[in-house]
Design brief:
- The chain is mainly β.
- Helix content is 0%, strand content 52%.
- It has strands at 3-7, 10-12, 18-25, 34-39, 45-51, 57-59, 67-72, 77-82, 91-97, 100-101, 105-109.
- The strands form 2 sheets. Strands 2, 4, 5, 6, 9, 10 and 11 form a 7-stranded mixed beta sheet that branches. A 4-stranded antiparallel beta sheet has the order 1-3-8-7, with no helix packed on it.
Length: 111
């Protein structure tokens, strides 16, 4: 069974940092491009970052320069380092492959 389990969310002050992790299992992680998506309260899903099998990284303009995506194929792990967090980054963050999202981890940026 395909599983994606996010962790690392929490409450942080504006300007702070958080590091999210996604543990993947049940599929050949090293052969899949991986994506982070977020959904803020009352809004639709927003694609924020993507990393290919070959390590090519892409970011939404809203997070470019502040967030860094990475992966560890040996450990079947996906990461998202988030710096200089803003209140508008408040959302549930999901890691995703086609047709499958994890359960999400809540990130709240507030003073």
């Amino acid at each position: 069974e395909v599983e994606l389990v996010e962790s690392g969310g929490g409450l942080v002050q504006p300007g702070g940092s958080l590091s999210l992790s996604c543990a993947a299992s049940g599929f050949a992680f090293g052969t899949y491009d991986m994506t982070w998506v977020r959904q803020a309260p009352g809004k639709g899903p927003e694609w924020i970052s993507h990393i290919t099998v070959g390590g090519i990284k892409r970011y939404a303009d809203s997070v470019k320069g502040r967030f860094t995506i990475s992966r560890d194929n040996a450990q079947n792990m996906l990461y998202l380092q988030m710096n200089s967090l803003k209140p508008e980054d408040t959302a549930v963050y999901y890691c995703a492959i086609p047709a499958k999202w994890g359960q999400g981890t809540q990130v709240t940026v507030s003073s």
